[in-house]
């Protein structure tokens, strides 16, 4: 806690990044923390608002004492196009290389009609959670969250990137999925109850 880490990534074969640094979570749980939270961003230039969002977030991360960024669903809007995921990761690199960049699953990463056998969440059925009252479709282009699971990591106290929790200073953050059954008696609901009780 409260330690500055210096690192670089790469290899002798493909080259190394510049040396970067980040400060781990505060030692004192009562330390003030500053979070930036948003959702539904996408990748620039496909989604023009993404650039202005990233410019503002990057400016805050570089000038303020930002502890963590929370991207709450609808991450890249790649919809099955791997090159857009690559562009998105390049877009967030100046931020995610300095502070934790925590993500949650949204319909544009998960929602699918087929491909349940490839679904890394373990949701039952070919299309996951599809209540009659929902507006669930094919918003992910068939990704079933596979690209996201291979690009991001989360604490292992829930169900991977689909639902999990963590502490940042005095704040307990719970990510849960509206793309999975969250009704009473569901696995996710039971996990949320247990997590909040603890």
Using brief descriptors, characterize the structure shown:
198 residues, alpha/beta, Purple Acid Phosphatase, chain A, domain 2, three-stranded parallel β-sheet, two-stranded antiparallel sheet, 5 helices, 9 strands, 26% helix, 18% strand, Metallo-depent_PP-like, Purple acid phosphatase
Descriptive overview:
The chain is α/β, with parallel strands linked by helices. It has one domain (29-197): Purple Acid Phosphatase, chain A, domain 2. The chain is built from five helices and nine strands, in the order E-E-E-E-E-H-E-H-E-H-H-E-E-H. Strands 5-6-7 form a three-stranded parallel β-sheet, with no helix packed on it. The radius of gyration is 18 Å and the shape is globular. The two termini are 22 Å apart. InterPro entries: Metallo-depent_PP-like (IPR029052).
List the helices and strands and how they pair.
Layout: E1 4-7, E2 10-11, E3 15-16, E4 20-23, E5 35-38, H1 49-63, E6 68-72, H2 82-96, E7 101-104, H3 107-110, H4 146-151, E8 164-168, E9 171-175, H5 187-197
Parallel strand pairs: 5-6, 6-7
Antiparallel strand pairs: 1-4, 2-3, 8-9
Helix pairs in contact: 1-2
Most strands sheet = 3 strands, parallel
| 3D shape | globular
Q: Within the CATH hierarchy, at the fold level, what is the topology? A: Purple Acid Phosphatase, chain A, domain 2
Q: What is the number of helical segments per DSSP (H or I, 4+ residues)?
A: 5
Binned, the helix content reads 25-40%
- Our Rg estimate from Cα atoms comes to 18 Å
The domain count comes to: 1
First-to-last CA distance: 22 Å
The share of residues in extended strands comes to 15-25%
- Return the CATH class: Alpha Beta
CATH architecture: 4-Layer Sandwich
The structure class reads alpha/beta
CATH superfamily: Metallo-dependent phosphatases
Unreliable stretches (pLDDT < 50, length at least 5) are none
Question: What is the mean pLDDT?
Answer: 90
- How many beta-strand segments? 9
Strand order of the largest sheet: 5-6-7
Order of helices and strands: EEEEEHEHEHHEEH
């Amino acid at each position: 806690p409260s330690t500055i880490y210096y690192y670089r990534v790469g290899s002798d074969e493909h080259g190394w990044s510049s040396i970067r640094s980040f400060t781990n979570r505060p030692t004192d749980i009562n330390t003030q923390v500053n979070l930036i939270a948003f959702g539904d961003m996408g990748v620039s230039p496909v989604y023009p608002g993404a650039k202005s969002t990233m410019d503002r977030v990057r400016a805050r991360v570089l000038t303020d004492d930002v502890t963590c960024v929370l991207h709450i669903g609808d991450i890249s809007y790649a919809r099955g196009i791997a090159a857009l995921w690559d562009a998105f990761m390049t877009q967030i690199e100046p931020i995610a290389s300095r502070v934790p960049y925590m993500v949650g699953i949204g319909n544009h990463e998960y929602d699918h009609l087929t491909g349940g056998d490839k679904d890394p969440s373990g949701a039952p059925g070919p299309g996951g959670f599809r209540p009659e009252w929902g507006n669930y479709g094919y918003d992910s282009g068939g990704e079933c969250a596979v690209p996201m699971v291979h690009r991001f990591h989360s604490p292992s106290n829930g169900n991977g990137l689909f639902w999990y929790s963590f502490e940042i200073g005095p704040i307990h953050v719970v990510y849960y999925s509206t793309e999975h059954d969250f009704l009473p008696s569901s696995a996710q609901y039971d996990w949320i109850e247990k997590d909040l009780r603890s």
